[in-house]
Write a structure and sequence with these properties.
pyridoxal phosphate binding; UDP-4-amino-4, 6-dideoxy-N-acetyl-beta-L-altrosamine transaminase; Aspartate Aminotransferase, domain 1; 2 domains; 13 helices; DegT/StrS_aminotransferase; PyrdxlP-dep_Trfase; Aspartate Aminotransferase, domain 2; 37% helix
Length: 374
């Protein structure tokens, strides 16, 4: 089965992990700081590593002070963690509809969803295409909300000349194997606001405070620490950080190959009846994580099943979040975001990963063309 996404591991990655395993530090060691510094050079802002993209969102919302009585405005066209991270802190999630072309959070819909209780606006860079951050920033500043970017798909992407990671107040990344780079499991939070990043760092380390100037009892001894607010152990170990740093050295090549594959899809699928191709706005330079096409005329399920039967791993990204029982049982109803639901009804993600060969991509294209033409 040809997968829809897959990691790219070379000997340099293996060597980096073996070196970490042979060191004195498997976790909480020097490779954590090294990986965070490497990430900062790509993200354009300081970063704190965490165990995965889901915990990155949880830590970011906690750092933003999200809690009971607050509202978080976000998109339903995402993985559930974008919403559940806020809900688990006691906030009310308010879903706003998406843009017809990009499936990113529609700023006009987000504005209509704002209230005096809005604590955060959380955008998602769907498929690696950055959201409309200039308009969303104006909304956040207007209401005093924290702007959060779920950039699980988008490390390496650029918005109007600025790297994703340097725009929102808090930006989260995922390093799952199918993402743009991998640490096996892993994630990070970037922030342009030092006080928020300090809160992320403390939260991911079980709430432990060690800096003498912050301790309420600073004279106890060098071993002493305090917990001022609850946190969790979301630390990413040195072994996985070593893999991340090795992967980052290949990020430019990863982006170039993903762009080549995207351009081939664009060219070879152009004009196919019953098929709508993804749109890339002129003001962004994305590192595409997904190649999401839309299957028209009610044929999405048929096409999905026939592609799978042909040995081609396609995927659907995503089920509207509020359709999940955990949200529907809270009173959320289908029909809330019609553009997102229409997008979901038609979307299929075609295989897109760095080691996808031209020959295998041609097979994907020929198979899809044949199904749609039958």
């Amino acid at each position: 089965m040809l997968p829809y996404g897959r990691q790219s591991i070379e000997q340099s990655d293996v060597d980096a992990v073996v070196a970490a395993l042979s060191s004195d530090w498997l976790t909480t060691g020097p490779r954590v700081a090294e990986f965070e510094a490497d990430l900062e050079r790509v993200a354009g802002a300081p970063c704190v590593t965490v165990t995965n993209g889901t915990t990155a969102l949880h830590a970011a919302y906690a750092a933003a002070g999200v809690g009971p009585g607050d509202e978080v405005v976000t998109t339903p066209m995402t993985f559930v963690a974008t919403a559940s991270g806020a809900a688990m802190l006691g906030a009310t999630v308010v879903f706003a509809d998406v843009d017809e072309d990009t499936a990113n959070l529609d700023p006009a819909a987000a504005e209509a969803a704002l209230t005096a209780r809005t604590r955060a606006i959380a955008a998602v860079d769907y498929a690696g295409v950055p959201a409309d951050y200039d308009r969303l920033r104006k909304l956040a500043d207007m209401t005093g909300a924290v702007l959060v970017a779920d950039a699980a798909h988008a490390i390496g992407s650029v918005y109007r000349g600025r790297p994703v990671g340097s725009i929102a107040d808090l930006t989260t990344f995922s390093f799952f194997p199918t993402k743009n780079l991998t640490t096996a499991e892993g994630g990070a939070v970037a922030s342009i606001r030092p006080e928020l990043l300090d809160r992320v760092r403390t939260f991911r380390t079980v709430g432990m405070v060690k800096k003498p100037e912050l301790l309420r009892r600073p004279d106890e001894g060098r071993w002493f620490y305090e917990v001022h607010e609850f946190g969790l152990n979301y630390r990413l170990p040195d072994v996985l950080c070593a893999l991340g740093s090795a992967q980052l050295r290949r990020l430019a090549a990863f982006k170039a190959r993903r762009q080549q594959l995207t351009a081939r899809y664009d060219e070879l699928l152009a004009g196919v009846p019953g098929l709508r191709l993804p749109v890339t706005p002129d003001d962004v330079d994305p590192m595409r994580h997904l190649y999401p096409v839309r299957i028209l005329d009610g044929r999405r399920r048929e096409v999905f099943e026939r592609m799978q039967a042909a040995g081609i791993g396609v995927q659907v990204n995503y089920i509207p979040v509020y359709w999940h029982p955990v949200f529907s049982e809270l009173g959320y109803r289908r029909g809330m975001c019609p553009v997102a639901e229409s997008f979901y009804a038609e979307e299929i993600s075609l295989p897109l990963f760095v080691d996808l060969s031209d020959a295998d991509q041609d097979r994907v294209i020929e198979t899809l063309r044949g199904i749609l033409g039958s």
